[in-house]
User: Fold these one by one.
Assistant:
Number 1:
Amino acid sequence: MADKALIEKAKKIFENFLSKQGSRKTPERFSVIDELYSLPEDEHMDVEGLFLSMRNKGYTISRATIYNTLDLLVESGLAVKHQFKDKVALYEQALTYKHHDHHVCNQCRKIREFSDPKINEIKEEIGNSFRSGITSHSLVLYGDCQIENCENLEVI
């Protein structure tokens, strides 16, 4: 079940962002927030998935509106955009975002999130060696599924 308070907070932030930009505050744009923030926190969704999900729920919205709204959500800090290898762009909500890295299976395409303090230690060491304050990083590990009878392989 979606956290209604979180969705309302995201909508307020987006409304302020659109006002500062001088952009229109359309119901379609806010419906994208409803859909994105109704996903589980570790879910990644592409435009087509959002489009189909919204259409199935009775929204009348175009793919172009979803693309444009997602760009605005990324710009406003309400969404994070990922580009994994040969996959289309995937988005996740950002208000609850805690930095994490990703593992992507080459066969079943399952995306798993993980955090490891050792990675932050390495980041600090490299920053020190380059005399640089590292402000962010992105790490994606790709591997081959070795899970016997992997349920994700069956849906491909």
Note: The chain has six helices and five strands.
Number 2:
Amino acid sequence: MLSRFLVAVAAMVAVVAASNVLVQFPVDAMLGGVNLGDILTWGAFTYPVAFLVTDLSNRAFGPHRARLVVVAGFVVAVILSIWLATPRIAIASGTAFLVAQLLDISIFHRLRNSAWWHAPMFSSLVSSALDTIIFFTLAMAPAFAGIDLFFGMEDGSLAFPAPLLGVGAEVELWQSLALGDFLVKLVMALLMLAPYKTVRDLVLSRMPVAA
């Protein structure tokens, strides 16, 4: 049990630390006539795995230990983020991560006895929306430029104009990135159902279901 718990914590730390770095890099590619750099960062593809780790921890260990996985991952990931990313990114990531993951655990627990896909799907969708709002607002909206200034850094806000999702009306770049990020999270939430079910079935075959 302890070894599985430590694996869950390590997985959470790895996912969040990697995502905190990758979110700083837009996807430098074109899709048709759309510049994906106006829509996505590479972190959009890695961060949703954190919800998979949380949901599997919740299913295997129950909500209390799942919260421990989240808190342990939060503490270590924030420390790594301060080293690997800017203080503003670290604050935004830590805040969004903690609030969204704890909400995910609560929703998952309420739905854990329904159809196998209900809990991971709906908990991830709702929590991903909240995570996206908190992170991109704190990390990139000009309203929170004071965080950079407090740490003696240049304003890292992404407030310059860009077409919404590369094709729509002009909005501030962080808003387009946020919407693109959330749309990827929706797709990833669907894709994560397959590994969730596979690992869930394996875990449940080896231990009793948590209450």
Note: The mean pLDDT is 87.
Number 3:
Amino acid sequence: MSDLVKFVQDEFVTRKDFPEFSAGDTITVYYEIKEGSKTRTQFFKGVVLQRKGSGSSETFTIRKMSGTIGVERIFPVNLPALQKVEVNKRGKVRRARIYYFRGLTGKKARIKEVRR
């Protein structure tokens, strides 16, 4: 049964073409916000902590610092409000999920950049 559900999701859910990114990369996500009858585009720039799931139910988590407070946001890949994703920097990390990044502050919270 789960194979059938996965097949239907993969066939009929439209996939958006975003650049390849993984944990440790710094990305900017542009998404649409509806306020009453108006819509506007807002962006969220931060470090990718993880990518989770597969197919149409895939999500990714981004963390940014807003002043001295860390803010995390989870985006589904197939969110209709997502407009585009830009990869600003490629980070060199050894793990697929960098939860340890939450506890780092100051200079320790830097990720080495990969030159490609």
Note: The chain has a mean pLDDT of 89.
